[in-house]
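Input/output pair, single chain:
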Amino acid sequence: MVRVLLTNAQWERIAPLPPGKEGDPGRSGADKRLFVEAVLWLVRAGAPWRDLPEAFGKWGSVWKRFRLWALEGVFERIFAALSDDPDFEYALIDGTIVKVHRHGAGAVIPAKSDHKTPIPHDAEMYKWRRLVENLFQRIMEFRRIAP
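Output:
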């Protein structure tokens, strides 16, 4: 079995929000919680859809349901229901909002060690700048998760 990310309390808050309740027209998925766990696993792992573990079901079926929920605004309803009590265990940053020009950080890229005149720089600031830039590169690689 795959490790779950949602607590029972979190699931109880969002369980009535997805489509497929008693009385809704059409066929609904077998296990809505398992589907939400599959989406959370993909976001956390940053893996392609085809690498989704079999425990979550067929990756194609999970993708189709993800696309349907995204178009119907189901995820927005879930986020709205959970946003009144934020849990900052995971912080997500949208690269379309946070954009800084390369030179906007104020950090200087140090010269090579064999440079004749060393360029003064803050080594700690450069280390953190590099970590943030690498983080944004990883986020941009996984933009396929957006609908």
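Residues 102-143 form one domain. The mean pLDDT is 75.
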